[in-house]
Amino acid sequence: MAYVQRKVPFIGSVDTNPETKPFWDGCAAGKLLVPKCTTCGKSHWYPRGLCPYCFSDKLEWVAASGKATIYSVSVMQRAETPYAMAYVTLAEGPTMMTNIVDCDLAALQIGQAVTLTFVPSEGGPPMPMFTPG
Amino acid sequence: MSLKGAAYIVGAFEHPTRKATDKSVALLHAECAKGALEDAGLTKDDVDGYFCAGDAPGLGPLSMVDYMNLKVRHVDSNDVGGSSYQVAVGHAMESIAAGRCSIALITLSGRPRSEGQATGTAPRAGNPAQPDMQFEFPYGPTVVNQYAMCAARHMYEYGTTSEQLAWIKVAASHHAQYNPHAMLRDVVTVEDVLKSPMVATPLHRLDCCVISDGGGALIVAKPEIAKSLKRPLVKVIGVGESPKGQMGGAVDLTYTGARNSGPPAWEMARIKPSDIKYASIYDSFTITVLMQLEDLGFCEKGQGGRFVADGNLISGVGKLPFNTDGGGLCSNHPANRGGITKIIEAVRQLRGEAHPAVQVKNCDLAIAHGTGGSLGTRHCGSTVILERE
Fold first, then answer.
1. Would residue B171 count as lying in a domain?
2. Among the four residues A47, B79, B330, B338, which has the most C-beta atoms within 10 Å?
3. Which of A8, A13, A52 is the closest to B248 by Cβ?
4. What is the pTM of this model?
5. pLDDT(B43) > 90
6. Contacts with A, B 55-84, CB within 8 Å
7. Residues of chain A neighbouring B254 (CB-CB closer than 8 A)
8. Pairs across A and B, CB distance < 8 A
C-alpha cells in the first residue's frame, strides 16, 4: 500500500521556549541538533537549558549524524491516516520520540536501522523523523 | 519511625454511574464523599482533612472544600494522574501520624464518556510550554500508542505474546460478569481479544480499558477512630510512590514506576508478594498489568506473560486473583483515572464484601497499585498494601 503522510501539527511557536529556539532553527536548516553537556560530556533528549545529568548550563548543540535504530515502534491504525509512532536511539546516544515515515509501516521492526529525514509541519518548522535504511 | 498501621481505611464508595450526562464533576465528587462517609458511619462535619488531584474541578481543594462546605484543617492536592489516590492514602497516613488531621476524605470523579472524549486515540494538545510538548505532540502520541510501544518492546525483549496479554482481559471479564455496574459484562476468550480491531500495534481494542464516567471516595482515619466505628478494620501497612520518565534520553520501556514504589511498601508492611491474597493492579491496558506484576515482584522480570496466562489471575482458579470488580478493563475508569477504584475493591475484598462469586477466602492481605500518566513517557507508580485486622 502506498505510503500516505499524516499531517503533522506543530504546537506553540519556535519562540515559546526561548532556550530551544536554536533547535528549531536547526530543523529549518535540515540539521538535527542534539544538546551535549561540555561539563559531564553527556548528550540528552528532549532538549533542555540545564543538563539533566549534572545541572551544568554549559551545553552545546551538536549536529547528529542522522543514524539511528528503532528502540520501539507502534503503528497507530485507528487514525485517519495510520502512522508509526516510535522511539529511536541515535548514534549519539539519546533515545527520542519520532515517527518512521515513507515506508511499509507493517514491515517495521525493533532494532532496524533508520536514517534522519525532515517532514514539514503545519504551523511550525519541519520535524525530524526517520525512514528505514 | 515506621508509619505501618498509622491509619485505616474506614470508608469506601464507588459511584454506580458509568454515564453521568445529568451531573457535574463537582456533584459527582460530592456524591462520592457522601457515599464514603455513610459507609464509614461518619458525617461531613467529622472530616478534618481533604485530599484530591487534578480531576477536581476549579482550584482543586479550594473549589471542592467550598462546594461541599467542609471544615477542614488540612488540605493536600497532588497530581500524578490515575496513581494520585494511592499517593493520597500515603500522604493522608503521614498527615494523620503528624497530627495534621484525623479523618481524611479523598475523592475522584470525572465524566470523559459524557463529554465524548477520545481518551486513548486522540493526541492531547497541551500547553506548548510543557517542556516535552513541542518535541512529542507533533508525532501523534496517544495513550494507546504510547503503551503499545511498551508492549512491543516487552515482546521484543522477553518473547511476550498477544495471547498472554489477552489472558489479562479474559480474567477481568470473568470477574465483571458478576458486577451489575460493569460496562462490559460478557465473558471473553483469548480469541475474542485477538479478533478485536487493532488500535495501535500490538494492542487491540480489547487490550484497552473502558471510557467511563463516575468516581469514588475513601475515608482514611487514625487508629482510635477506626476502632470506634462499626466497620471491619482495614489497616494501611505499606505505601510507596515513584515517578519515572525518559531519564534524559535513556529511555527504558521495559519497567514501570512499580519497581521503585513497591520496595518501600513491602519493607514497611514487612511482607512479601507471595503473602498477598488479592491484588488490585492498575489496568489501563493489558500490558500495564503485566509489567506492574513483574515490577512488584509477583514474578521475575520478563516472566509476566507466563504468569498471567491460563487463568492465573481469575479468582477461584488462579494463584493471584486480581481486579475482581472487572477493573478498568471491564467495569469502569472514571475520569480516565483508575487508582481509587483499585483501592475500593481491595477494601471490599478485605472486608469480605466482594461479590460471593469472586470473594477471596480468608482475604487478610491485599495490594492496590496505581499507575498515572503514561508508561510510554512519564508516569508515577504508587503502591498501597492493606491488612484486614
1. no
2. B338
3. A52
4. 0.97
5. yes
6. none
7. none
8. 132
